């Protein structure tokens, strides 16, 4: 969410009515999240000036660990230098820390491609935004899920009940510090996740939603502690659903 919001912001800066705007003091502390969107807190160091040049050799974009040769345009300006400076700063301050983590396994190759392409400045901001929007579409639609054996057949469903939320086993990247609360596309994906975790014996798809509209599923190590809830369904592993435990 943070990286996508940042890319949308940089897309606007690259195509602003004032021209391409560069953030000269590009640091994480210069941004805040407001209603799920990244905002710049300080525009004192923003500039529309692009580096003047006489030849391509005047247009090297230097960073502490990398340098990029750019072209000198016919009007004597280094082509795209403001856009590229913003994008590489996004890569080194945000993408490298956030993109490799917490995405479903099937989506990580797409994010790795974005990371590599922006790290080498092979993508401009237009291509980067398109790549992020593609990943978002795959994530929200569930198209990233591979056709595989149905996992829900390993569970019995108990309608009209939900589990008491409390401290249980932890997982990454949980939305709760008390237990294992993850974003899923469907009960089928939740069943696949539960099967992949040795501690998991039951789960419920809650009514809570993430910023993408995906529901949150709560995974627990025991199907005990059920309370009535007309709108809920508890899924319990058949191997854990003996009469004694229920």
TrEMBL record:
Gene Ontology biological process terms in this record: skeletal system development
Source taxon at top rank: Eukaryota
UniProt cross-references to InterPro entries, sorted A to Z: PKDCC (IPR042983)
One GO location term (cellular component): extracellular region
Alphabetic keyword roster: Kinase, Signal, Transferase
Gene Ontology MF terms: non-membrane spanning protein tyrosine kinase activity
Signal sequence extent: 1-19
Stored PANTHER family: PROTEIN KINASE DOMAIN-CONTAINING PROTEIN (PTHR46448:SF2)
Protein name as annotated: PKDCC kinase
Organism: Sula dactylatra (Masked booby)
């Amino acid at each position: 969410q943070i990286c996508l919001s940042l890319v949308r912001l940089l897309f606007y800066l690259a195509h602003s009515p004032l021209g391409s705007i560069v953030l000269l003091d590009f640091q994480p502390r210069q941004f805040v999240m407001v209603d799920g969107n990244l905002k710049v807190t300080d525009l004192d160091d923003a500039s529309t000036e692009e580096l003047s040049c006489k030849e391509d050799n005047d247009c090297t974009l230097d960073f502490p660990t990398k340098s990029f040769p750019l072209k000198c345009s016919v009007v004597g300006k280094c082509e795209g230098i403001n856009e590229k400076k913003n994008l590489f700063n996004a890569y080194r301050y945000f993408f490298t820390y956030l993109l490799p983590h917490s995405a479903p396994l099937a989506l990580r190759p797409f994010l790795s491609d974005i990371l590599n392409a922006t790290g080498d400045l092979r993508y401009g901001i237009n291509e980067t935004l398109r790549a992020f929007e593609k990943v978002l579409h795959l994530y929200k639609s569930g198209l990233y899920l591979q056709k595989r054996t149905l996992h829900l057949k390993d569970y019995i469903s108990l309608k009209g009940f939900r589990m008491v939320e409390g401290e249980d086993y932890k997982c990454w990247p949980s939305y709760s510090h008390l237990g294992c609360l993850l974003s899923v596309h469907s009960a089928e994906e939740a069943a696949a996740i539960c099967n992949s975790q040795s501690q998991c014996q039951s789960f419920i798809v809650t009514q809570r939603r993430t910023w993408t509209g995906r529901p949150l599923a709560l995974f627990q190590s025991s199907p005990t502690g059920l309370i009535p809830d007309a709108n809920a369904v508890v899924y319990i592993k058949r191997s854990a659903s003996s009469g004694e435990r229920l």
